[in-house]
């Protein structure tokens, strides 16, 4: 019976443990937290967006996003749904492909997975930090802060540095490097952004819907419509998280990053000026601040007028056509320089990681070291928001588990 060590009891580690044990391996999970699956519990605001029915490699970033294709085919949605049923977990499938546990509680996912893992005979050692992994001839030595054990196979499922408060570490990269693996520079993703502006902090707490355009080195790279929320440090909201992967990657490469907000995305951009003219014509005797408050949040209006260099109490009828055009332009394209992300502590995931060029995507085994495997977020693969990160964690975990059990 092959002895297998899994470093990290997160999504991919638990999945791999289950499949390896079912295939006949003697499996031990090492988890340095006091319990496994902390990110599963925190995910999707406690609901766990567990998978996406539509996932393809195009939902992922990394040096080679197509690395995920084989895994996603092996664990396609129908297979995953059947698997969930087999462990007693029912799913709520949304129209856009996102799936949640039917209970709407992330806890259900962890409870079902943990009981399947325990039924399969996996040994889980919590409060146990792996500090080094070495290989002598045909076996690996796994060193923890308590002891050292020998194994035939080792899976590095330590995840990324995102959300260290949930136990995230960069240890997986250190282990991989010690075996000669290349690590692509890591960066926070699905994360809030820091802005350089006079006023964003004064709008902290203001939430609205906008179309956000991401601009990198002067070129428009992405456009997303959704919620934005101004904050003391900059800006957050789902639309911001959605553009954050590319923004953060560009910042890592020292590119110039900015965002442009269209504050009235429900209207055609070309018609904005005439719509505003019409509104102004019907409230010609109001001051411009009052007039715009019928369209936009009052706090936003205050700082939009400041950026347009128009005094708040100017009577609408006295605005020049140039001023009206300037306002319409700002409402449709309010630009902010992005200086940084809000960091790994606030990020859901991380880009970069163990180079996929040195890992076999059909087995998740290292191409450099026989018996060494990598799954999930420790790899240079990062998914969009919408269940794609768990999707790859489950899929890569299953493949590695089956392989290690052979
Ligand atoms: C707040 C939040 C919400 C999220 N929501 C979603 C969502 O709804 N849908 C989605 O698809 N994705 C979501 N994600 C991302 C998702 O959680 C991860 O992509 C996924 O958990 C990655 O799985 P993994 O197995 O690679 O790593 P993890 O699940 O992070 O597991 C790694 C494990 O390794 C342990 N570990 C690290 N170093 C050591 C060591 N030296 N020794 C022992 N143990 C160690 C860690 O404690 C951890 O338990 C969210 C992430 C966060 C932070």
Please supply descriptive tags for the structure shown above:
single chain; 406 residues; alpha+beta; 12 helices
State the total count of DSSP E strands.
21
End-to-end separation in angstroms reads 10 Å
Beta-strand level of the residues, as a percent range? 25-35%
- Strand ordering within the main sheet: 13-16-15-14-17-18
What is bound: which ligands? flavin-adenine dinucleotide
Strand-pairing-aware structural class = alpha+beta
| Helicity range | 25-40%
Largest sheet: 6 strands, antiparallel, barrel
Radius of gyration: 25 Å
User: What general form does the structure show?
Assistant: elongated
Question: What value does the average pLDDT take?
Answer: 97
In terms of per-residue confidence, which ranges show pLDDT below 50 for 5 or more consecutive residues?
A: none
**Count of separate DSSP helical elements:** 12
Describe the protein's architecture and organization:
This protein is an alpha+beta fold. Strands 13-16-15-14-17-18 form a 6-stranded antiparallel beta barrel. It has a 5-stranded parallel β-sheet with strand order 7-2-1-11-20, sandwiched between helices. The chain has a 3-stranded antiparallel β-sheet with strand order 3-6-5. Helix content is 31%, strand content 26%. A hairpin with a 3-residue loop joins strand 9 and strand 10. The longest helix has 17 residues. Helix 1 runs parallel beside helix 5, helix 1 runs parallel beside helix 12 and helix 8 crosses helix 11. Flavin-adenine dinucleotide binds next to helix 1, helix 2 and helix 12.
């Amino acid at each position: 019976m092959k002895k297998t060590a899994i470093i990290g009891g997160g999504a991919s580690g638990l999945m791999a443990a289950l499949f390896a044990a079912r295939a006949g391996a003697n499996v031990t999970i090492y988890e340095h937290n006091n319990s496994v699956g902390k990110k599963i519990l925190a995910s999707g605001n406690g609901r766990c967006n567990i998978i996406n029915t539509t996932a393809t490699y195009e939902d992922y970033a990394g040096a080679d996003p197509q690395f995920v294709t084989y895994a996603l085919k092996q664990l396609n949605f129908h297979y995953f749904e059947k698997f969930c049923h087999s462990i007693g977990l029912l799913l709520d499938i949304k129209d856009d492909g996102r799936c949640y546990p039917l209970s709407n509680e992330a806890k259900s996912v962890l409870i079902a997975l943990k009981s399947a893992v325990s039924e399969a005979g996996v040994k889980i050692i919590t409060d146990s930090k792996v500090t080094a992994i070495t290989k002598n001839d045909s076996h690996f030595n796994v060193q923890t802060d308590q002891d050292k054990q020998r194994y035939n196979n080792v899976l590095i499922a330590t995840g990324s540095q995102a959300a260290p408060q949930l136990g995230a570490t960069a240890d997986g990269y250190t282990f991989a490097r010690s075996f000669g693996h290349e690590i692509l520079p890591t960066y926070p993703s699905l994360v809030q952004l820091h802005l350089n502006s006079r006023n964003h902090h004064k709008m902290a707490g203001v939430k609205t819907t906008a179309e956000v355009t991401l601009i990198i080195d002067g070129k428009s790279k992405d456009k997303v419509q959704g919620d934005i929320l101004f904050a003391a440090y900059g800006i957050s909201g789902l639309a911001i998280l959605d553009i954050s992967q590319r923004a953060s990657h560009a910042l890592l490469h020292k590119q110039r990053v900015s965002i442009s907000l269209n504050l009235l995305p429900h209207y055609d951009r070309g018609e904005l000026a005439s719509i505003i003219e019409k509104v102004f014509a019907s409230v010609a005797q109001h001051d411009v601040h009052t007039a715009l408050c019928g369209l936009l949040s009052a706090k936003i209006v205050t700082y939009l007028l400041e950026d347009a260099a128009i005094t708040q109490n100017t009577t609408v009828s006295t605005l020049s056509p140039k001023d009206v055009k300037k306002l319409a332009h700002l409402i449709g394209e309010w630009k902010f320089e992005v200086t940084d992300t809000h960091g790994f502590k606030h990020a859901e995931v991380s880009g970069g990681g163990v180079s996929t060029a040195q890992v076999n995507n059909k087995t998740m085994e290292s191409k450099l070291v026989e018996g060494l495997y990598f799954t999930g977020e420790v790899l240079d693969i990062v998914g969009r928001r919408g269940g794609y990160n768990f999707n790859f964690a489950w899929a890569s975990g299953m493949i590695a588990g089956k392989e290690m059990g052979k």
